[in-house]
Specification:
This protein is of the alpha/beta class. The chain has 16 helices and 18 strands.
């Protein structure tokens, strides 16, 4: 799998050769992150913090709101690592600070140890100082304490001359159950595919920025197909993970989908199929996932219009029910609920909505027995969804906030607030 990389210097996305010479300034990293997030997790490296000449903290916080990010560069102590994990980083990447004393105070599964190497020897101080330690020995020392390793082949970094695939198999065997990500010199999709076959992720920067490799081609690199037509079955799901239908993709349609960030597929009867071009039921493409066997795609989309199915239903199995359907119905009725209807009153009268929320929450708190809890919880959910629709908030927005909170390590006491809110 590919891990796109964003290196930050003075708030801009940059690319360096050998960690020293800046050869590319790509400007504002936010639109870059919005595109890179299609591939999943992004590696964000704060070069200013790593070099001890400032930081890009505010920019990184913006990126964390846009995409899942692993954060590295200048993470040298436990408080800094915890601060980024609490801010929503999926993982933190530690270099020289990846010592047993530090690592034992952090959650193993969310820590990556970065090992920069020249010809297999670990280097530090901005790649200037050789340590005499081998990458293999450091991995054996740290693997019980980290969830992953990032190994950078410094002599190849930014030089667009290919990576050292002959080392990957050995490194993967050494790192055991820890995830392995390799950086430095990836220039072709064949290299990404081979790294994936060997069990490693490919962290790629320069090749993407210079368009030597397209993001779509990099995503597709590990894919295979056992179909005579070579197509990849593509499961289409919405932001709640509800399956909308099954489509097919090929490299042409995948490139078009990534470039436009829309639901675009390969129709076996019509060729390139841009979903919603005629019906208006368009899709915003949010993420592309590969399955474990690398023969099926999953498109996570934001569905507009009536739905995915050509029959005008939300899914190809009919209209999806439950809370998501109610949320969509209320959102659609925010501006169209009939005058005099109860829903219209709730939208127009914030004091009524507030009173009902408090009333139903109190009744749920007092409910006893399964049936009573179901009844009162349904009331609370209804009024909550009205409040969300009134504020232009979706279930996906709330789910994303809950996901961010789940990443926090520093927990509040959780005591009830007083009436004064203290």
């Amino acid at each position: 799998m590919i891990v796109p990389s964003i290196d930050l210097m003075d708030r801009n996305a940059v690319q360096l050769v050998g960690g020293k010479q800046k050869v590319l300034d790509a400007g504002d990293p936010r639109p870059i992150a919005e595109k890179f997030r299609l591939a999943g997790e992004i590696a964000v490296v704060d070069l200013d913090a790593a070099l001890g000449c400032g930081n890009n903290n505010e920019t990184i916080r913006d990126l964390l709101r846009l995409a899942p990010c692993r954060i590295g560069g200048g993470v040298r102590d436990v408080p800094t690592a915890l601060a980024w994990l609490d801010a929503g980083a999926t993982k933190v990447v530690l270099g020289t600070a990846a010592t047993p004393d530090v690592l034992t105070r952090l959650p193993r599964e969310r820590v990556v140890a970065a090992l920069d190497a020249v010809d297999g020897e670990v280097v530090v101080d901005g790649w200037r100082t050789k340590t005499g330690a081998s990458v293999a020995d450091r991995m054996r020392e740290l693997r019980p304490l980290v969830g992953g390793f990032l190994v950078t082949f410094v002599e190849r970094e930014g030089r667009m001359q290919g990576t050292a695939l002959e080392r990957v198999a050995q490194l993967k065997e050494i790192c055991g159950d820890a995830e392995l990500t390799v950086a430095g010199g990836f220039t072709t999709t064949e290299e990404i595919a081979e790294a994936d076959r060997l069990g490693a992720n490919a962290q790629v920067g320069m090749a993407l920025y210079t368009d030597k490799m397209s993001l779509a081609d990099a995503i597709a690199a590990p894919l295979r197909s056992d179909r005579p037509d070579g197509l990849w079955p593509t499961v289409v799901v919405d932001e709640q993970g509800i399956a909308l239908g099954l489509a097919y993709s090929d490299l042409e349609s995948l490139r078009a989908a990534v470039d436009a960030r829309r639901g675009i597929y390969h129709s076996r009867s019509r060729g390139l199929w841009i979903k919603g071009d005629t019906s208006g039921a368009t899709q915003d493409l949010l993420r592309i996932d590969l399955d474990c066997d690398r023969d099926t795609l999953r498109f996570v989309v934001r569905q507009h219009g009536a739905g995915f199915c050509h029959r005008g239903t939300r899914t190809c199995w009919g209209d999806a029910g439950g809370i998501p359907r109610l949320a969509r119905r209320l959102a659609a009725r925010r501006d169209s609920a009939p005058t005099g209807s109860y829903t219209r009153r709730l939208f127009d009268d914030p004091e009524l909505l507030r009173a009902k929320l408090m009333e139903e929450a109190a009744e749920l708190a007092e409910a006893a027995g399964k049936d009573a809890v179901i009844w009162e919880a349904a009331d609370v959910l209804y009024f909550t969804l009205v409040a969300m629709a009134r504020g232009g908030v979706t279930l996906a927005d709330v789910a994303a906030e809950l996901d961010r909170r789940a990443l926090r390590l520093t927990r509040r006491a959780g005591d009830a607030k007083t009436k004064e809110g203290k």
